[in-house]
Amino acid sequence: RQIFLNGTFVAEHEARVPVMDRGLLLGDAIYEVTAMLDGRMIDNDLHLARLQRSLSEVEIAMPMPLDQIAKMQVELVRRNAMRDGTIYMQVSRGVEERNFLPSAGLKPGFLAFTQPKKLDENPAQEHGVQVALYPDPRWDRRDIKTVMLLGQVRVKQQARLDGFDDVWMFEDGCVTEGASSSAFIVTQDGTIVTRPNSTAILPGCTRQSVMALATAHGMRVEEREIALEEISGVAEAFLTSASSLVQPVVRVGQDRIGDGVPGPVTRRLQHLYLDAAR
Ligand code: PDD
């Protein structure tokens, strides 16, 4: 595999990150994930815009101008001959002697790699997933896409122990989002509901794209909080992310959703999203 690292492409076994990298030692780094289907990047402009925003929120310098990052992605994909999968990018604040307080003006570290996978062809897309419902363990700036992911790693490990495929998290009696996805329900009258963007969740690119598609096709979309008590009565549930696309959810915690199979609104959104991507 060819890795992009600080301006050059190198073979994976030759790629080296310094031990004193702040991303490695302190989680002081930002990342993005873009999906590829059939040789096309999906929602990449949204991912690049969010990368820029996350970096600026934590005052890490842009490693290169956005248009050059986009060109790098194209070259990375070409070198790895990837048609389906994900492109991962990570920007660390930089390298210096370990210290919580960073020096000003560090040179950011920038890496990117590809992970080939047929995202639209797997059992979860077809049959849906069962998500556990756990308290949200994260900090108060979840709108920033940082590599500080230990909270999400822990809840996903717990979910596997408890016999679930994935996790939705909650706070103050309401769903925040998935451990690595945006959470949606569909009410009995067919309204698609998801939590409004705030510092409590990551503003999902797939979420934004799917909501726009739904609205454009005359479906009702409502941004409001999802109370835990209402989950047992919903018609459908699904989650969205770059790597999961639109993924049906057939169980949330102890509640089976609908008939326990993906519902018609979810199926329609899956098709609309894949059609728009191609
Ligand atoms: N995760 N919320 C969280 C906490 C996420 O980690 C993600 C994505 C999303 C969905 O965002 P988007 O639609 O822009 O991918 C929501 C990526 C896929 C990851 O960490 O691998």
Q: Which ligands does the model contain, each kind named once?
A: N-(5'-phosphopyridoxyl)-D-alanine
Q: Quick one: CATH class of the largest domain?
A: Alpha Beta
Largest sheet: 10 strands, mixed
Mean pLDDT over the residues = 98
- How many domains comprise the coordinates? 2
| Fraction of helical residues | 25-40%
Large-scale geometry: globular
Determine the structural class based on helices, strands and strand pairing: alpha+beta
- Provide the CATH superfamily of the largest domain: D-amino Acid Aminotransferase, subunit A, domain 2
What's the gyration radius in Å? 19 Å
| End-to-end C-alpha gap | 26 Å
The tally of helices reads 7
| Unreliable residue runs | none
CATH architecture of the largest domain: Alpha-Beta Barrel
DSSP, total strands = 16
Q: What fraction of the residues are assigned to beta strands by DSSP? A: 25-35%
Q: What letter string, H or E per element, gives the SSE order? A: EEHEEHHEEHEHEEEEHEEEEEH
The CATH topology of the largest domain is D-amino Acid Aminotransferase, Chain A, domain 2
Structure described in brief:
This is Probable branched-chain-amino-acid aminotransferase. This protein is α+β, with helices and mostly antiparallel strands and about 280 residues long. The chain contains seven helices and 16 strands.
